[in-house]
Amino acid sequence: MIDQKGIRNLQPATSPYKRGCGNGLYIYVQKIFIGKDGNEYGGNKYFKGKYKDSEIQVGVFGSGYGELTLHEARDKWNEIKIWSKTTGQKVSKYKDHQLKKIERKQRTLEDAVNVYLAEAREGEWIKPKTLHDYTNQINNHILANISPTTLLTDLEWENGGRERVSKLIESIRQKANGHGVEQARRCQQLLKQILDYAKIEKGWFRGDNPAITSKRYTTNEVEHHPTLPWDKVPQLLKDISMNRCNSHIQRVIATKFLLMTFLRAGALVRLKWEWIKVVDGVKCFEIPGTTSGLKRKKGKSESIPHHVPITSQMERLLKKARSYSDGSEYVFTPIKSGRFPHLNPESPNEYFVRLGYKNQQRAHGWRRTARTNFVDQLGCEEDVIKRQMGHLPDNKVDKAYDQSLRLKDRKDFLEKWCKLLINQGLVLG
Asked: Which DSSP state fits 300?
């Protein structure tokens, strides 16, 4: 095993070579070559690490700015391996993780507001009037009392975010003539939703939400997407499996399928049998991008379909659904005649209510429940999770590298998720 002095004495050759530094770390010596100008180039020395068939460049050898000694390289490599073991991701993804950390530090309150409103605007879960009210609250009260350029990291609890939010809410209370407490309560609740979205859906925020409701402004009003904590999920799965409210079987099957796929209800009820295809060797639903509930942007991303790999557990549910579809093109047919040729998009929410989970769990809220537990419970790769959630790349750079659907990885992920739900109490029937 080579030491610091040995690395320093390594000489470049006409072919690259490497020397082991221990624990999967090695020094890679770049080959030398003659440039068009007749001068020699190359010969640089890089620290690289390999763990479970995945490699990453750790850094450049040296003692100058941005360079690493052998001791420093070993420390950094150890940090990368611990991160890989903890998250279950390949070491090659560590740089993406670091970039996300940098991005997180650059995101502002205005960024969080914009993505939240975009989600609300394009979704089916909020009424236009409510959206109008939200926009007014944000512009006239929240952003009027705290700078839109405020970094989200400055709002994190450990950085004094709780104090900043408390001052913001108190300022709103004092300025609202005759309706101070109510206005402050609404703004605090809205800010909490915005920061929850930034944390759960975007990863821009960490730690406890500083806008958590204080006793001073506590009411019984429920957020739009109530979600159960993970320790309450087993009872929910048991109640669904036993169909305690004796609901229609189509509603039960659809809800179970929603739990497995975490599709938005609007897309779930519009699934068609003809959308089942084999793509890249994986049997899946290929849902057209124009389907309501996918949140594709008209003229920009509506041409991009969403794929849902079909697991063995889903196959059992689909077999049962087909026996009730009565030859319909839709997987989930309506319980009674009405405005929809398929199951009503509100059916899963109605089922939660009938089971006694009103103000505790909603269909869209299940996406949050699932999203916050994917890594904790399964240690799944972030990119696979985002793709299966139906999230498209955020920028042009991401889109340029977004060539692979990664359907096999996504199917493996869904298999693990379905098994977890079954282990927690879900019965397919």
From this structure: T
